TrEMBL record:
The lineage of its organism: Bacteria, Bacillati, Bacillota, Negativicutes, Selenomonadales. The gene is metAA. This is Homoserine O-acetyltransferase. It is found in: Cytoplasm. The keyword Amino-acid biosynthesis applies. PANTHER family: HOMOSERINE O-SUCCINYLTRANSFERASE. Signal peptide: none annotated.
Length: 310
């Protein structure tokens, strides 16, 4: 079954070219089926790029998925027009009375700032608290994972030097966990960040489990509160083949001291085309989350979703 997206969303053109099966809103209304309902809080500056990356993976499933995109009202994005947001996005105020099968929060380019100094932090805290009682499962990515771990469990983040940048080899820390069903013993995931959370802090919180990690510098990759169906992912399995190249070229052009992304270019040579090592990981990760932690467990009547809030 396809993912349902808004009529005329620009990501549809990319999905068409890649033969990703989707359904626009008009066609979906004719389907007599209860789709999975996801809320995606997109904190990335160029909304359309992140939309395409996540929709590509969420659409690779036999399940029909309906997405509401949300942005923060307390901060006006600098790289996405208000017209675009008005057509394709809603505010938290517009969705706060809805319930969802799943909630996904992206990363954001604010990781070097203290959490409390982020312009939309108060609104973000309200949304994360809301997600505990209005979404059956939550999936936090990169800075979103750091923010979620800090808000929900008090886990701090730490600056790292140099930047964690490249495609790193990971291994599982748990056995027979459904999120990683079908994964190889070793798998690769892109990372691009200036900060990290650490295993020693996570291990102090009984509710949390380290699910997967890499050797330094990438470190802990996936943390979960399995009782509450909350997942915190430090890397970017959703990245396109050329995303790290774009970041590298941008920073070089700006005169920044940026290293060549690790395990990305053949022979570490930026003149060569990057090798994609994480495509299957990305598809499995999102398909497993949707299937095992959302579709298989969420109640048919969304009004029955309820979790005790602290």
């Amino acid at each position: 079954m396809p993912i349902k997206i808004p009529n005329n969303l620009p990501a549809a053109q990319v999905l068409d070219r890649e033969n990703v099966f989707y359904m626009n809103a008009d066609r979906a209304y004719g389907q007599d089926i209860r789709p999975l309902k996801l809320c995606i809080l997109n904190l990335m500056p160029v909304k359309s790029v992140a939309e395409t990356q996540f929709l590509r993976l969420l659409g690779n499933s036999p399940l029909q998925v309906e997405v509401d995109f949300v942005y923060t009202e307390s901060y006006v994005p600098q790289h996405t027009s208000q017209e675009y947001l008005t057509e394709f996005y809603g505010t938290f105020a517009e969705v706060r009375n809805k319930k969802y099968d799943g909630f996904l929060m992206t990363g954001a380019p604010v990781e070097q700032m203290p959490f409390e100094e982020v312009a939309y932090w108060d609104e973000l805290c309200e949304i994360m608290e809301w997600s505990k009682t209005h979404a059956f499962s939550s999936f936090y990515i990169c800075w979103g994972a750091q923010a979620g771990l800090y808000y929900h469990y008090g886990i701090p983040k730490y600056p790292v030097e140099p930047k964690i940048f490249g495609v790193f080899k990971h291994h599982l820390c748990v056995e027979h966990e459904k999120l990683f069903r079908g994964f190889d013993d070793e798998f690769y995931v892109p990372h691009s960040r200036h900060t990290e959370f650490r295993r020693e802090d996570i291990e102090k919180v009984p509710e949390l489990t380290v699910m997967a990690e890499a050797e330094k510098p990438a470190g802990v990759y996936c943390v979960a509160d399995l009782k509450e169906n909350q997942f915190f992912i430090s890397g970017h399995a959703e990245y396109d083949p050329m995303t790290l190249k774009g970041e590298y070229d941008r920073d070089k052009k700006a005169g920044m001291d940026i290293q060549v992304p690790c395990n990305y270019y053949p022979d570490n040579d930026p003149s060569k085309r990057p090798v994609v090592r994480w495509r299957s990981v990305a598809n499995l990760l999102f398909a497993n989350w949707l299937n095992y932690y959302v579709y298989q467990e969420t109640p048919y009547e969304l009004d029955r979703i309820h979790r005790d809030s602290d």
